[in-house]
């Protein structure tokens, strides 16, 4: 998976970060798209997943999801900058 993430990052920093977040956190695409800056607590190493984006009838809809807190760990590798 590291090779896939590295290749994606070489093509697009945003895509590399997206794939890294999916692998590390296990969130679904809609949950990741529903994240807002306030959902990320860098000091505590937490991501609060409370919303999901879906497409219904051609319209993007932000909806509630079952709230989940994802804790980072010191052993979780971060993407190279």
Q: Would you mind describing this structure in some detail?
A:
The protein is of the alpha+beta class. 35% of the residues lie in helices and 32% in strands. Helix 1 packs antiparallel against helix 2. The longest helix has 13 residues, at 13-25. The two termini are 18 Å apart.
**Largest beta-sheet characterization:** 3 strands, antiparallel
> What distance lies between the first and last C-alpha atoms, to the nearest angstrom?
18 Å
> Care to count the β-strands?
3
Low-confidence stretches: none
Name the shape in a single word.
Answer: globular
Total number of distinct structural domains:
1
Structure annotation, total helices:
3
What structural class results from the helix and strand content? alpha+beta
Average pLDDT taken over every residue: 82
Q: Can you write the helix and strand succession as a string?
A: HHHEEE
Strand order of the largest sheet: 1-2-3
- Please bin the fraction of helical residues: 25-40%
Topology:
Elements: H1 2-11, H2 13-25, H3 29-33, E1 40-41, E2 46-56, E3 59-71
Antiparallel strand pairs: 1-2, 2-3
Quick tags:
globular; 81 residues; alpha+beta; 3-stranded antiparallel sheet
Briefly, what is this?
With 81 residues, the chain is an alpha+beta fold. Helices cover 35% and strands 32% of the residues. The protein starts with a helix and ends in a 10-residue tail after the last strand.
